[in-house]
């Protein structure tokens, strides 16, 4: 196996504290959702144990995800499958549009605003704020949330799915005026106020520094010495690291981003490395991913080559 792959997997294993629930979410979204969104717990344990996540930690993390309504259980005799809930599936499908896209979205030069115009209790206000941040909104003060391209109807549907229907009456969604002129200074100022892009740029640069040597090695040596298991493990860690970056990224259109923005380099790097790992890692999943009844779910053809599927510019 490539030394760079081994080094990355060893670095991951040696982390003082792996957020197992977050890693399991990454695995569900990338590997399990395309195969029906369900898995036998024993199979999940076998897939993740080589990353030195022990059985007890995996069981505890899956139980918490079920408690948070990401997953539900379906029993088959003495075994049980963990299955994505409808809200969990919606979250993953929304995330997929960001993870597997090859370009930042185009901008129609209209800002989407959600204003808090009614009374909200402190807990409800924090829940709304967290849900909007999850969808990439920035904050301008305590009562104004902004995004350049979100579909407001989908945002409200997402709040309802998060159990926040009672808070909608306190919110006012609206569009700012359409501007067809060149980007204005006020746009740049709004971006600076709503998002901390400096810290995010550093995180993207660090991602590139970690994974570019691995891609370079694979371009030189191909995959001849990489096992199916290690291809799956690296694919998992790659998507997990990239997903964690996207959780912090508002996915601003390129016209609103600083020059030489490293996010696009990270996106293309992730795409190229993922596509090289995908065939080997899928063979590993064919062998280890199974359901409680012993059946092996095939990958849904609709998810094949997802990086191309979500590429709005066709590149």
CATH architecture of the domain at 112-178: 2-Layer Sandwich
**SSE order, as H and E?**
HHEHHEEHEHEEHEHHHHH
Assign the structural class, choosing from mainly alpha, mainly beta, alpha/beta, alpha+beta, or little secondary structure.
alpha+beta
| Dominant shape | globular
The top-level CATH class of the domain at 112-178 is: Alpha Beta
What is the arithmetic mean of pLDDT? 86
Strand arrangement in the largest pleated sheet: 5-6-4-7
Largest sheet: 4 strands, antiparallel
Strand content: 5-15%
Number of distinct helices: 12
Question: Would you give the CATH topology of the domain at 112-178?
Answer: Alpha-Beta Plaits
Report the helical percentage: 40-55%
Oligomer: single chain
DSSP strand tally = 7
Low-confidence stretches: 309-315
SSE topology:
Blueprint: H1 3-13, H2 20-32, E1 38-40, H3 41-48, H4 55-67, E2 71-76, E3 79-84, H5 86-99, E4 112-116, H6 122-134, E5 138-139, E6 144-147, H7 152-161, E7 171-175, H8 185-194, H9 197-221, H10 228-246, H11 262-288, H12 306-309
Antiparallel strand pairs: 1-3, 2-3, 4-6, 4-7, 5-6
Helix pairs in contact: 1-10, 2-10, 9-10, 9-11, 10-11
Domain Transcriptional repressor PaaX-like central Cas2-like: 107-166
Organism: Dechloromonas denitrificans
Domain Transcriptional repressor PaaX-like N-terminal: 20-87
């Amino acid at each position: 196996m490539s030394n760079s792959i081994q080094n990355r997997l060893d670095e991951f294993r040696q982390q003082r504290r792996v957020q197992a629930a977050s890693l399991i979410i990454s695995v569900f979204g990338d590997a399990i959702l395309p195969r029906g969104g369900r898995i036998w717990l024993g199979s999940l344990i076998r897939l993740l144990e080589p990353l030195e996540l022990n059985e007890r930690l995996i069981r505890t993390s899956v139980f918490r995800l079920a408690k948070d309504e990401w997953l539900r259980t379906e029993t088959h005799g003495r075994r049980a499958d963990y299955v994505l809930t409808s809200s969990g599936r919606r979250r993953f499908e929304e995330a997929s549009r960001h993870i597997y896209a090859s370009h930042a979205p185009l901008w129609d030069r209209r800002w989407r605003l959600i204003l808090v115009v009614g009374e909200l209790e402190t807990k409800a206000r924090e829940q709304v704020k967290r849900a909007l941040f999850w969808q990439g909104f920035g904050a301008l003060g305590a009562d104004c949330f902004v995004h350049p391209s979100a579909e407001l109807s989908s945002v409200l549907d997402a709040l309802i799915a998060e159990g926040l229907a009672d808070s909608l009456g306190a919110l006012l969604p609206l569009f700012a005026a359409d501007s067809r002129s060149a980007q204005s200074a006020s746009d740049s100022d709004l971006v600076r106020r709503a998002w901390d892009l400096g810290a995010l740029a550093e995180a993207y640069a660090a991602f590139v520094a970690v994974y570019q040597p691995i891609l370079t090695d694979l371009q030189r040596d191909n995959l001849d010495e990489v096992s199916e298991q290690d291809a799956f493990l690296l694919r998992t860690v790659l998507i997990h690291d990239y997903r964690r970056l996207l959780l912090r990224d508002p996915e601003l259109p390129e016209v609103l981003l600083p020059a030489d923005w490293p996010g696009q380099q990270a996106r293309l790097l992730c795409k190229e490395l993922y596509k090289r790992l995908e065939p080997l890692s899928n063979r590993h999943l064919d062998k280890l991913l199974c359901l409680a009844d012993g059946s092996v779910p095939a990958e849904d053809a609709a998810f094949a080559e997802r990086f191309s599927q979500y590429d709005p510019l066709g590149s």
